[in-house]
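This follows on from our talk about sequence and fold. Can you supply me with one protein entry, sequence and fold together? Could you add the entry underneath, on a fresh line?
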Amino acid sequence: MKDPGKLLRLFRELNLLSSSKRGYTVHELAEKVGVSYRTVYRDLRIFEETGFELIQNELSKRFRLSRAEELSENIAFKREEAEALHEALVGLPEGPLRQILLEKVQALSGSAQQVGLLHRQSMSANFHLLAQAIRDKRQVVLLDYRSASSHQISNRLVEPFAFSDQYSTVQCLEVSSRTTKFFKIERIGLVRIEGSPWQLEYLHESRKQDAFGMTLHKPKVVRFKMGLLSSNLLREEYPAAAMHLHKENDGSVRFEGEVGGYDGVGRFVLGLIDDIEPLGPAEFIDYLRQKATKLI
């Protein structure tokens, strides 16, 4: 599996399901792991496809794993084992390797809730530091930024100058490339304010993003119909998309709005293609068809 974050999430979910006699609803799992309901449904499907036997209570709708005690003994660290490993890892120098190893131990020792709390606290601190840097017009270093496009963790010297409408990303001028980029706050390890003021303010170019996080450089209008499940998930995961939703006479919901590219909206549509009907334009439908062909 190429995505280490996804693998850690699956381990956390397995650990939760194997250590609970009552089991968990999809909503409870989503809240504990910090992902959407749709992601949990997908993960449960992965478990079934890879041989894990899931049992769901018809009344409570809670899921649990068959032979949970046996599985728990095989995949999870005992408390004393986890504490010993955690203590050893804390002594390592700061950096991506230390963080990844800590997350793996925590994922397999049932402490995902604490990990989530620390993550939210870190995000809050980073947000306030970015807001201070914007106000004071200072350069900052985004330490251990996890890039989804390059799959690398690196430090970025930037000049932050605006937040997105949903405050999930910060718009910055990257000093090395001298280009404006959006950085997701949740992917920033730490923010360090530098002593230098902005040096390239004349290059700061405020840009807009579409509802799916893509830059609106050359906007295109896309249309698709959704069932109740997809429309609810769209509102939860992409709140900015709500303004583009229209109720249809047949009970479905239609999305019609501008996007900066097909990658963002395409990932959403392909992930729920059984509940979504693409309507246009033809270019968008061709894009989806090509992507779907690669998945076969």
The chain has four domains: 1-76, 77-110, 125-203, 220-295.
